[in-house]
Design the sequence.
């Protein structure tokens, strides 16, 4: 296999009338999805003169967007998903870097597309869906494609808030999805529910695992995450058996104790990634789904989505860190110490490097950032092999499992000591009544700040737990209560917002 479209075509041949994707308003069978994607691909070829060029796909989160970016692939081009809820400023930054050859959107977002100031062709999916598929043309286009061709450019947050466009190939996705579907037993009987935005790498897993194994993926309406009982009813009505969500969402549901009122009789796989999963909230899920598989997945967008994983196989105390485990099959990770050597012994920190077919090509139109992060393998001098420096600090525990420590650029130096914010968060988050927390460092004021969401009465308990479990140099200078923890569009805690705005919140000295 060399092209992800083979997933769609094989599944459509085997299960033409089976639902592939559904949203709140519509659903697409495999046969209809293939038909629409072929029509869209033919329409793009007719209206542009590019091949292997980026095309922006501007939609809300729905089934049309899935058909659109598969249509871009049929046209021999590279798709970039532009979520319609993105701030216009971010879209403009992306367009300046990407310089797309065209934009494909729908009539509902046509005005938004023109507001960007894009001067190239703006193609409407309604017109593309009525266009006759030119199978002969699409066959010629496919014949020119290889597995090393870029499939998509996905923009992730960069330093100072400047997005970086990660270039991911067909080979990257095929290698990664092969591991994911084999490891977690994804099949034609699997029913998934998507939580993350389509421009977030976790959705790459949702979408392509579905296509690969002829599964069904339901796009969960965003508003349901504010109504947990209705969310669980949605999952039960659709017999969802697999979810792959960010920990912040799982924690919110645990904090609201939704299992005390509603059950999930069909759910048998709970996978999570994107940020640290606190053990206390994880234990609530495990208690209420005793027969389910739980797994912590870890990796950056630059490794397609994931590079290590850990299937929960033992009990964890509420303040214990959940391991990120070991490397995925067909992927190698290396822990590189400050001296440039490979770390093998327990409890010594190093930066995580990744090699293998999961690793992306680099950053689009940004050779400088690419050269900083996609580097020659320092342990292979005989031939040029490139590895990805993740910027994540990790260590091995006594069992040989990887433990996430912190981002390299998040590590705090305070009072002459090195402090890992994740360790402070783990202890604070184990206190009953703490729903979410984040530890930040205000360099200008030289103070460590813990911000938590929870009940008014829990502050004293947080302070006592921190004093009991942490050395004096790790104790926060301020403990700040917040009514609602800020989260980005993907559901992850927005730590940059916390750092910039904590002074305006109600706070008290430790």
Sequence:
């Amino acid at each position: 296999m060399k092209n992800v479209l083979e997933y769609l075509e094989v599944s459509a041949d085997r299960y033409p009338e089976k639902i592939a994707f559904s949203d709140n308003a519509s659903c697409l069978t495999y046969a209809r999805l293939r038909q629409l994607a072929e029509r869209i691909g033919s329409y793009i070829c007719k209206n542009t003169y590019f091949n292997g060029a980026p095309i922006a796909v501007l939609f809300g989160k729905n089934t049309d967007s899935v058909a659109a970016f598969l249509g871009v692939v049929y046209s021999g081009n590279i798709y970039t998903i532009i979520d319609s809820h993105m701030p216009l400023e971010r879209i403009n930054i992306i367009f300046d870097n990407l310089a797309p050859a065209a934009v494909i959107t729908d009539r509902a977002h046509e005005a938004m597309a023109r507001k960007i100031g894009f001067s190239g062709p703006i193609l409407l999916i309604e017109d593309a869906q009525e266009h006759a598929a030119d199978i002969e043309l699409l066959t010629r286009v496919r014949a020119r494609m290889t597995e090393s061709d870029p499939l998509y450019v996905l923009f992730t947050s960069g330093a100072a808030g400047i997005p970086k466009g990660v270039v991911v190939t067909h080979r990257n996705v095929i290698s990664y999805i092969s591991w994911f579907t084999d490891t977690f037993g994804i099949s034609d009987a699997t029913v998934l529910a998507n939580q993350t935005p389509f421009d977030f790498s976790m959705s790459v897993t949702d979408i392509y695992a579905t296509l690969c194994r002829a599964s069904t993926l339901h796009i969960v309406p965003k508003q349901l995450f504010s109504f947990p009982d209705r969310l669980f009813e949605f999952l039960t009505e659709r017999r969802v058996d697999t979810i792959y969500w960010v920990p912040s969402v799982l924690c919110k549901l645990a904090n609201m104790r939704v299992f005390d009122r509603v059950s999930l009789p069909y759910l048998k796989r709970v996978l999570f990634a994107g940020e640290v999963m606190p053990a206390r909230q994880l234990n609530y899920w495990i208690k209420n789904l005793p027969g389910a598989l739980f797994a912590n997945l870890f990796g950056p967008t630059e490794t397609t989505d994931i590079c290590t994983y850990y299937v929960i196989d033992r009990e964890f105390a509420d303040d214990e860190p959940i391991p990120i485990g070991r490397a995925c099959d067909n992927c190698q990770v290396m822990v590189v110490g400050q001296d440039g050597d490979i770390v093998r012994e327990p409890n010594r920190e190093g930066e995580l490097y990744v090699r293998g077919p999961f690793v992306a090509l680099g950053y689009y139109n940004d050779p400088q950032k690419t050269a900083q992060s996609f580097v020659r393998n320092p342990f292979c001098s005989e031939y040029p092999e490139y590895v990805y420096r993740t910027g994540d600090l990790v260590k091995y525990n006594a069992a040989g499992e990887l433990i996430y420590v912190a981002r390299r650029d998040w590590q705090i130096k305070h009072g002459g000591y090195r402090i890992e914010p994740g360790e402070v968060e783990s202890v604070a988050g184990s206190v009953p009544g703490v729903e979410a927390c984040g530890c930040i460092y205000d360099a200008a004021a030289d103070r460590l700040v813990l911000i938590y969401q929870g009940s008014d009465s829990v502050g004293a308990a947080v302070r006592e737990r921190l004093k009991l479990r942490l050395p004096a140099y790790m104790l926060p200078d301020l403990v700040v209560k917040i009514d609602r923890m800020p989260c980005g569009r993907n559901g992850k805690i927005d730590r940059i917002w916390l750092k910039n705005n904590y002074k305006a919140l109600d706070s008290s000295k430790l």
